[in-house]
Amino acid sequence: MEHQVPETNAMSDERDPLHELLRLAGPRPAVPADRSARVRLAVRDRWHDTVRVRRRQRQGLFAAAVLAAAALMIVATRVTLRPPARPPAATPAAVIASVEAATGPFSLTEHTGRQDEAEVTLDPGNRLSSHPIHQGALVRTPAGTRAAIRLHGGVALRLDEATTVQLENDEDVVLEAGAVYVDTGDEGSSPRQRVEIRTPYGIARDVGTRFEVRRLASGVRVRVRDGLVRLQQETRCHEVRRGTELVTSSAGEVTRRTIPLQGVLWDWVSRAAPPANIEGKPLTAFLDWVEREGGWHVRFADASLARTAATTIVHGSIDGLTLEESLDVVLAACGLAHRIEGGSVVISSSRALRGDAREEGPR
User: Fold this and answer.
1) How many CA atoms lie within 13 A of 223 on its CB side?
2) In which element (H, E) is residue 282 found?
3) Is there a domain that residue 31 lies in?
4) What is the CATH number of the domain that holds 284?
5) Is the pLDDT of residue 265 over 90?
6) Quick one: how far is CA 26 from the chain centroid?
7) Residues 158 and 229 in one domain
8) Closest Cα to residue 215, out of 226, 229, 201, 228?
9) Displacement of CA 289 from its chain's centroid (Å)
């Protein structure tokens, strides 16, 4: 039976040329199996590549997000947390001494709390007492300058010219050059500070009250004005008593001799001493200073003068005067005179002293 195409289809085909061409061309031949397999492999590889690229993009975005978050945390931490504390500054050395007087300029070298050191020149024209001396300081007096230093424990040190000492603390003094005179106070005072003067040739330990230690070219010399000093060496210990000088050499030689307690041997000590403050004080206080600085024993020609001296008030200043000049000026202003007999200063009257209390002094 012949199959007839409906009229409607014929009309549709006439209106659609593309459909007619496809009908006339017929079905396409099947794609060979090997070509189809190659196409599928190529498509799969391309798909895998696309997936890998997108995965890397997602990982990159994730990493960037993590870094951004970390940066925000760091910024937030820096904003909210306190900055780290600075390391504490080096503790400054303790003040262990002060300058009482000087006859000229001298240098003071101190550690500043860091690695470096600071050297200053102190001049008697300035207020020396306002400049503290710290632990470990190196003090140098040049030729022509002597200085007086007071340790905070009460010990008085006098430095001769061309002297170098290091104040390790208020009990240990290293003598590197020159001479130092030590006055540790009255024997009966309690408690009384002790001090050691260290040299390469031995350590002079204070047992008494007033003594000198001097570095020599190849040894050390100790002179004792009052009390007792022990010079400790590696294998021996020497005792040096009042009125005695001991010299030891690097070769081990030891010599002793008796020395006076007054006179030229001690002149430099008196010149280095700070002047006594006599303003408004009794005459007896000045005479006590004379005994201590001059090494003399003060006595009165009669007992009545001793009683009067206790009630005589002195006014004025003896700055710039030597010990002998001070005696002349002060005693003359008080109507007194004096003479030196051996190791004593004998005070007598040059005019009658009347009244229970007098106020006299150098003008």
Assistant:
1) 15
2) strand 281-282
3) no
4) 3.55.50.30
5) yes
6) 112
7) yes
8) 201
9) 33
CB 135 within 8 A of CB 93: yes
For residues 123, 124, 127, 130, the Cα torsion angle rounded to the nearest 10 degrees is: 70
Q: How confident is the model at residue 192 (pLDDT cuts 50, 70, 90)?
A: low
Residue 310 domain boundaries: 275-360
Q: What pLDDT, on the 0 to 100 scale, is given for residue 185? A: 80
Q: What is the pTM of this model?
A: 0.69
CA dist 291 and 344 (Å) reads 9
Q: What is the mean pLDDT of the chain?
A: 79
Closest CA to 159 of 134, 141, 185, 143: 141
**Alpha carbon distance 337, 333 (integer Å):** 10
Picking from 241, 266, 291, the residue at the C-terminal end of a domain is 266
Q: Compute the distance between CA of residue 295 and CA of residue 150 in angstroms, rounded to an integer.
A: 20
- Write out the H or E segment, with its range, that includes residue 19: helix 17-25
Q: Identify the DSSP state of 122.
A: E
pLDDT tens-digit readout, 119-152: 888 887 666 666 789 999 999 999 999 999 999 8
Cα 353 to its chain centre, rounded Å, is 54
DSSP 202: E
pLDDT band at 357 (very low <50, low <70, confident <90, very high): very low
Which residue type is seen at 82? Answer: R
Return the amino acid letter for 8.
Answer: T
